[in-house]
Design brief:
The complex is a heterodimer of chains A (about 350) and B (about 60). With about 350 residues, chain A is of the alpha/beta class. In chain A, helix 1 links the parallel strand 1 and strand 2. In chain A, helix 1 packs parallel to helix 2 and helix 2 runs parallel beside helix 3. The radius of gyration of chain A is 20 Å and the shape is globular. With about 60 residues, chain B is an all-alpha fold. In chain B, helix 2 packs across helix 3. Chain B is globular, with a radius of gyration of 12 Å. Classes of the chains: A alpha/beta (about 350), B mainly alpha (about 60). At the A-B interface, loops of A face loops of B.
């Protein structure tokens, strides 16, 4: 069994933004149920002992936690490379200084659009874009490397050239252009967010061109939407292979969307060790490796390349988490994606909110 | 290391990376390696330059 190399620590589901494609589950955890500082410190120590090298401090908005500095310090003390994934709207210079002091290594800042009005409509927060620009400056002035993370979809892809310009202007060394993936909130808003084939192809061409134009200055990571694909993505590099996620309430998950699979039970860090959850929990072992695979994955030459695609997407679209991901053209459910594309085109969406 | 990516150097790459200290330039690194392994400088230079260029493109090193 491999060691988990990266840990996604979802510290809270609280967030000042309300993006309609939020990757948090539709059933959000309230502050009263969140893990304590000491519980997170234990998680980091156990993760490092398991062989984990980096932690993504995420949420919700991680800086909404009053103990974000102590949490960062604990992750650093455990020997982990620490990455803060933030909306940036709560970040000021004094907090940044304390985070640097605590050992923070890197900041990943989200932008919702290059156009402030569009960004504020999508994020559902007035004044957010200007605060993000200020946050980028604060990160750079603190001497930390900055990644800009742009989630793209039908309603902002027209501004992709400006998003690339924004990354350069704000001093990012890396830009992540991530097409929305459709689980949870994004699945509810799919009709408003799914890009057309034309939009996708234009975006891919733009990214290819920008990679060459800004070679050595800006690294661009590109995550494609698989609704237009014929082969599924190698989700998480394989279930329970190299990645684990901890929810705000302490559930140990093979991916951050795994709670969307109805009927799955997850170990909780409050009553188990991280090693036991990783090695022995039913949730991690259910789809680990290739033995669980149905046809056409079983025996497929791509089985250890794409790992049968995404379990959450298989469940969301077919009701069976063990089915071949419908993104694969060999799936008997592949037509579901084409049907979704035909139906897409709505402009209204529903903001993420506590139920 | 960088977020969401990891570079796992092999033994050869490690020999190069141990000499990358922010002060030495590529030429100095090539000189040291050519001496250490008693190898033709041109061969070393081609390999080292290709590796360093690749890391610059990936954002792991600054030229």
């Amino acid at each position: 069994m491999n060691a988990p190399l990266a840990l996604l620590a979802e510290l809270t589901h609280r967030c000042p933004l309300r993006c309609p494609y939020c990757s948090n589950p539709t059933e959000l955890t309230r502050a009263s149920a969140e893990l304590t500082t000491a519980e997170w410190a234990r998680v980091f120590t156990e993760a490092a002992r398991l062989g984990c090298l980096q932690v993504h401090l995420s949420g919700g908005e991680p800086t909404a936690r009053r103990d974000i500095v102590e949490i960062t310090a604990a992750a650093h003390a455990a020997g982990l490379y620490t990455n803060l994934i933030t909306a940036g709207v709560l970040l000021d210079a004094p907090l940044m200084a304390r985070l640097v002091e605590a050992g923070l290594d890197h900041v990943q800042l989200s932008v919702q659009d290059a156009d402030p009005a569009g960004a504020e409509r999508i994020g559902g927060m007035k004044g957010a874009h200007a605060r993000k620009e200020a946050a980028a400056r604060i990160v750079r002035e603190a001497g930390l490397p900055l990644t800009l993370n742009a989630v793209v979809h039908r309603q902002n892809l027209q501004n992709l050239p400006l998003l690339i310009e924004t990354a350069l202007a704000w001093g990012a060394a890396r830009l992540e252009v991530a097409h929305v993936q459709y689980y949870g909130w994004a699945l509810e808003n799919r009709d408003a967010l799914l890009p057309t084939r034309g939009q996708l192809d234009a975006a891919t061409r733009l990214v290819d061109g920008a990679r060459i134009a800004h070679r050595g200055r800006l690294v661009i990571d590109y995550v494609v939407p698989d609704y237009h694909a014929t082969r599924p993505k190698p989700c998480m590099g394989g279930w329970g292979n190299r990645f684990l996620s901890i929810s705000p309430a302490g559930r140990v998950l093979p991916c951050h969307a795994a709670e969307s699979i109805a009927g799955m039970e997850f170990a909780n860090i409050r009553n188990t060790s991280l090693r036991d959850a990783w090695e022995n929990s039913e949730a991690f072992n259910r789809f680990r490796g290739t033995a669980w695979m149905p046809a056409p994955c079983q025996g497929c030459e791509n089985a250890e390349r794409d790992w049968g695609g995404c379990r959450c997407q298989a469940f969301a679209l077919t009701g069976d988490a063990a089915a071949t991901d419908p993104a694969c053209a060999l799936s008997p459910h592949h037509n579901l994606l084409a049907e979704a594309l035909v139906e897409a085109g709505a402009s209204a969406f529903r903001y993420r909110e506590f139920g | 290391m960088a977020p969401e990516r990891m570079f796992v150097p092999d033994e050869t790459a490690l020999e190069v990376l141990r000499l990358v200290d922010g002060m030495r330039d590529a030429e100095a690194i090539i000189d040291l390696l050519a001496a250490k392994f008693a190898a033709p400088r041109a061969v070393i230079a081609t390999d080292v330059q290709a590796m360093l260029d690749d890391l610059v493109v990936k954002g792991a090193l600054r030229a």
